[in-house]
Amino acid sequence: MEYRKSGLSLNHVQGCPLDCAYCIRHTYGLWDSRKPTALMSDAEAVELLVRHRYFRPHTTPLQIFNRATDPLLPGVKDHLFVCLEDLDGRGLTNHILIITRFILKPEDRERLNALANLKVTLLFTYSGITDKRIEPFASSIAAVSMKLASELRPRRYRTVFYWRPLVPGLNDSPEHLATAAELSKHADAAVFTGLFYRGEIADYYKANGLPEPYEGTARRKIVPETLEQRVLEAFAHAEGSAVLFRKTSCAVAYAHGLPDYNGHYGIRELCDICPVRQLQLCAGAHNIPTARQLQEAVVDLPEAAGLMVLDVTERAAQVEGLPDEQPRYFLQHRFAFQIHDAGHPHLLNRHGRAEIGWEQPA
Ligand code: SF4
């Protein structure tokens, strides 16, 4: 279990044969695990999740099988449905994000649609990359799955066109952008994001003679400024394209008609591409916590004993003294308000992204 920005993530099945060269599995030392393997029973895993110190019924956003496998793979899908039905059967209404690039079958969408309580979002990863050395499993398959999922009427779950990773020179030609805008018409919302290009992934590219997308590596996802502008323009010109977001949680929240649970509204320049009704929803939910409320929220978390709140503005709280990102995300979701680590400052207009490809501020 791991608390990530989009939600508390359950990963008791690990291993994936799809072999995307940029897979985050490289960074977990799991690249060689190609066969999905369950680490425990689904009942045990769900019990661990709902008893987890970060879990709050109905509020904590959840993710499942997003780290080291694909939830719709044979050998994973049965686990997925058992867990979803267990959580749903408990009457829980939490968000749950399911990120896939695999094949969705008609019977899968029926089963997903039968979930009565959870706020389910299917995010279909699509890149348009055709270099088989980088993506052996064609992302056009995810596009077919997305269309099938979105066609069902009526449906409770929501669909997101998860356009990533966008890499300059690889999948950002005008044709790539136009195709993506066209495909997005089949989803309830769209997100675009860049590449996590960390040391372990760069090493893999080098060892396998793959064309390296960037000269440097970065802690955050990389989306160069000019690429972002071209993406926004491509969607603006494509009539009927899905509403496009910079942040995953914004797309998920919008698709369900709810305010963003990460409180991105505080970072005002992030919202300049958002529909007015959604802006109003997020504005209405934007509450600035006090430093004391933040401190009180972590009294039961031993790992957050060193929390120091340095500043709280209407944009975000600046904190330090946390050992890693997990308690920070707990606070961020608890208050739907941005909590930034003072050690990794967020710069104006950078949208929380890596510095590669952006002008340095004056
Ligand atoms: S208003 Fe801002 S925070 Fe809310 S969904 Fe739109 S972009 Fe995200």
Model description:
This is Radical SAM protein. Strand 12 (317-320), helix 11 and strand 13 form a beta-alpha-beta unit. Helix 1 crosses helix 2 (77-89) and helix 5 crosses helix 7 (225-237). The longest helix has 13 residues, at 77-89. With 362 residues, the protein is of the alpha/beta class. The chain contains 11 helices and 13 strands. The protein has 2 domains: 2-258, TIM Barrel; 291-341, no CATH class. The model has no long low-confidence stretch (mean pLDDT 91). The chain has helices at 42-50, 77-89, 106-113, 140-151, 174-183, 199-207, 225-237, 248-255, 276-284, 291-297, 325-335, and strands spanning 2-4, 7-10, 13-14, 37-38, 62-64, 95-100, 119-126, 158-163, 189-192, 244-245, 308-312, 317-320, 339-341. The N and C termini lie far apart (41 Å). The strands form 3 sheets. Strands 1-2-5-6-7-8-9-10 form an 8-stranded mixed sheet, with helices on both faces. Helices cover 30% and strands 14% of the residues. The structure holds iron/sulfur cluster. Iron/sulfur cluster binds at residues 245, 247, 250, 253-254, 260, 264-265, 270-271, 274, 278-279, 282.
Short overview:
The protein is of the alpha/beta class. Helices cover 30% and strands 14% of the residues.
